Amino acid sequence: MTRQQAFLITLLSSLCMAFFMSGILTAINTGIDYQLLFRWMHSFAIGWPIAFLISFLLLPKVRTLALYLGRPNR
């Protein structure tokens, strides 16, 4: 995997995760009304950069841990 591919995977996965999680949690915590979309986009705008930064910094360690835990028994 190239660096560009790894960056794009991090970017897109954090975008999808932050989008859906912010929407679901905003609806659960504040209810569904005519202002939900505004609150959701506000939450997403705050959450996505944080999700991207965390994913970017932790993904190499998570990948290493997953490879270690998923190794075949010897």
Largest sheet: none
Radius of gyration: 16 Å
Protein structure class: mainly alpha
Number of domains: 1
**N- and C-termini, Cα separation:** 27 Å
SSE run: HH
Question: Total strand count, please?
Answer: 0
The proportion of residues in beta strands is: under 5%
Note poorly predicted spans.
none
Number of helices: 2
**Any idea what the shape is?**
elongated
The averaged pLDDT comes out at 94
Helix content: over 70%
Protein name: DUF2798 domain-containing protein
Transmembrane segments: 7-28, 40-59
InterPro entries: DUF2798 (IPR021529)
Keywords: Membrane, Transmembrane, Transmembrane helix
How would you describe the overall organization of this protein?
With 74 residues, the protein is mainly α. The chain has one domain. 84% of the residues lie in helices and 0% in strands. It contains two helices and no strands. α1 (3-30) crosses α2 (36-69). It is elongated, with a radius of gyration of 16 Å. The protein starts with a helix and ends in a 5-residue tail after the last helix. The model has no long low-confidence stretch (mean pLDDT 94).
